[in-house]
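Crash report, auto-generated. Payload:
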Amino acid sequence: MKTGRIPQQVVVLSVIAVVVVAGFFGMRALFVPESFGKYGHYRADSVDAIRKLPIQYGGAKACAECHDEVAATKSQGFHRGVSCEVCHGPAAAHIEDPGTIKPTAPRQRELCPLCHNYSPSRPTGFPQILTAQHNPGKPCMSCHKPHDPVPPNAPKECSACHRGIWSQKLVSPHASLECSTCHEVPKEHSVDPRGFVVSKPTGNQACERCHSNAALAASAIPQVTSEHTARYLCWDCHYPHFPEGKK
Amino acid sequence: MSLDKEQGPGPGIVTTAGPASTVEVDTAAMDRRQFFDLCKKALPAGMALLAAGTPISGLASAETEAAAGALPEPKMPSYAMAIDVEKCIGCGRCAAACKAENKVPPSPHYVRTWVERYVVPREGEALVDSPNAGIDGFPDQPEVDILKTFFAPKLCNQCANPPCVQVCPVGATFQTRDGVVLVDDDYCVGCRYCIQACPYGARYLHPEKLVADKCTFCYHRITQGLLPACVEVCPTEARVFGDLNSRSSPIQRVLRFNPIMSLKAELNTRPKVFYANADQEIR
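Recovered output after restart:
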């Protein structure tokens, strides 16, 4: 075999290698999108595509630009944190074309109970009703203004708002006690619940009025010695609205 | 070991840049011995440069000087959400708004965000339910001796270290430079690896598009200065959205004044969705 001449198999393999490599880069240029890898292992153009998706909810600020009177009323009431589109539905289209496209306005009882129907899982103090018992069939709007909701008449019973506590107390040995036995309730509390806060007992004296063995109470009431209460607050162990007693 | 020389601007010209001198040699006329001599000269200069840690190219250092005089580029935002569990009333408006904003199919199986109700009994496991993502409200409490009960909204946690992005075989799901994990609809092949990889169950396969779909933090809204739809409609401000790189962002206040936890922190996914006042039962 002559030296200096390139063997045929080397030539063939080289040509194949060149074709494969060229093919790889050719295909890569053809199939990999242009913007792939601009910022990372993804198509940079898709970020722009996602950014251009249509918007459905215009935002409460945009509503206030035209409906400034409603916005002013609402900003002073309990619903100030509730965006317009929670009840009226997505309204970006209405902002674009206010003349022809009108957002919905719920007038019946369907929407309010989603927030205000009683559920023990809701945070304490959130205003709740039992929808089935609270003026059944009557639209909420007939008594409450949705943009400035306050109870039409100040509720007389504590249970109107503190339904969870009330329903527990009702089946407990404390059922016959009035709330005012332990709490001092300012008159204004029913109108301005957060401005005028109800007092809570601070020491064991509140319970000892009935449950101390020195108290002049009926023998049916469980009574304890002063040693029992010396080191703890009563409600460290006993929940006053549902005192379990001996278990 | 690489040779301490730099390819200069012109063809056939080798430039050795040193702090003291610059030598230019025509490489075409250079034989092997000359080349080694040149390397010998260049080596100490190169070592000195490396030790000093200065940029080798004179042009580059000029550029950095020019940049130092200009204003710094505005910081890329780092979007995040905080959820105050104590404020959530479980109305499900977030889940409903999300479906409307992002055209998520109406079937209860497809959700980008949902509200879970936790009922923790005095004995036994916590009961968790989320009928139709909580959009239509919740049925009556289960008949158990309840220790405590609360609502917890869930969504894609927008992990800083996302498992879904790691497993995607085609680069269709990715993290943008502002920290949001997105899905490229045109590039996804619908293999469902990411749905399996997500520890939060935040992804689903879109029944019509046949691609993976998930919460985008409403990327089309936040990049225009609007809030995500769920945050916009949340009536109790249980959801707060903001930019972690901005001191004045409302999320900073939530993170500062509340005890904060992340879901499944032990997985090192580093979520960008933070839970305030949350119970350990939330997973």
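Post-recovery validation: Residues 8-31 of chain A form the longest helix (24 residues).
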